[in-house]
Amino acid sequence: MVLDLPSGQTVNSPQAQAKMRAVDRGMATAEPSLRLVSYASTGSRTLVGNGGKSTIVLAYPPKPGDDMATDQVDALTRAATTAVPGPSPVGSASGAGHGSARRRRRPPSGP
Predict the structure, then answer these.
(1) What is the residue extent of each domain of the chain?
(2) Exposure class string for 17-38: b at 16+ Cβ within 10 A, else e
């Protein structure tokens, strides 16, 4: 899942860090069986993009090789979009400059 931070914030700002931790907590609560990797949990700059204005959260199923169900992805998306209440939380669906969460879908397999 891609998290676009609110306008004027980067992963280094205290407000954004608090919001990213809240998103992690919400996602972990929504789907406790999944393994999550994020900038908030690791501090790894490899998970940061767009000049520090966006980051990703990786979610893995409990067993290597398993797929995540659509309802699990939906639960993570809901958790991210509701983790931080207010007019412009990380994960809001409001769009440009207000912070948003986007999920990347796996491309179809096969010919």
Answers:
(1) 2-102
(2) bebbebbbebbbebbeebebeb
| Entry pTM | 0.74
At position 108, the amino acid (one-letter code) is: P
CA distance 106 to 4: 20
Alpha carbons within 13 A on the beta-carbon side of 57: 32
By CB atoms closer than 10 A (0-12, 13-18, 19+), residue 86 is: exposed
User: How far is 106 from 110, CA to CA, in rounded Å?
Assistant: 12
Per-residue pLDDT of the chain (111 residues; tens, 9 = 90+): 888 888 889 999 999 999 999 999 999 999 999 999 999 999 999 999 999 999 999 999 988 889 999 999 899 988 988 887 543 334 433 333 334 455 544 444 444
**Residue at 31: amino acid letter:** E
| Residue 49, SS3 per DSSP | strand
CA distances to 4, 30, 83 from 33, rounded to whole Å, are 25, 9, 18
